[in-house]
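step: validate -> pass
step: tokenize input -> pass
step: predict -> running
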Amino acid sequence: MNPYPKITLVGAGPGDADLISLKGLKALSTADVVLYDALVNDALLEYAREDSLRVFVGKRAGHHAHSQQEINEMAVAYARSHGHVVRLKGGDPFIFGRGGEELEYAAEHGIPTAVVPGISSSTALAGLQGIPLTYRGVSESFWVITGSTTTGMVSKDIHAAAKTDATVVVLMGLNKLAEIVRIYQQEGRGKLPIAVIQNGSLTNEKLALGTIDTIVSVAGEQHIGAPAVIVIGEVVAKHEHFAMFHHNCIAV
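step: predict -> pass
step: emit ->
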């Protein structure tokens, strides 16, 4: 057993390699093992030591290289055998990243841990598009909701959020877009602005802008795919091109 086992959860940010923190890079530079996810920019691995072990443990919807339990076990095993394990996770480890589960598992097995927060796509991607999640007189709060629950159903929180004026950010929800639209339409919110951002912060970023009533067709026309973040609320109209998109949708 290595005399100095440790696991550090590091948030890699939303995709652009430049959006990781300086503290995250420092952690990478001292890692003996890096366990990294599918949404982590490969360019970040260049900041790890040349002699470090890099292990891909990526998970995407329907395609898991390893189960969460296997990842937990690997992190502990590598910490014991190699020393410092950096668990490099897309976004922020504690926002739908299962960081809490990994931390608990490490604690149960007596492995010291540390956390380096990351920039979450739930807040960053709207901002990069010029969409403020809060705006005086327009939105006083924002909700971050998963579109992928363990039951496979749309989160009940979306039903609740649709009744409010809050900005709603849905992660991992593209395959539920039509269902989310129906929920808002049932609340009479068909004219509410909405944006879908694919590959946010990367050079191949794509954007669909519309209203609840038009977004499914607009996203289809734009060939929007996963990974994507959905932003719903009046603040989406603050996007500099929203008026043009909305006008085109009405014209069609």
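step: describe -> The chain is about 30% helix and 20% strand.
step: cleanup -> pass
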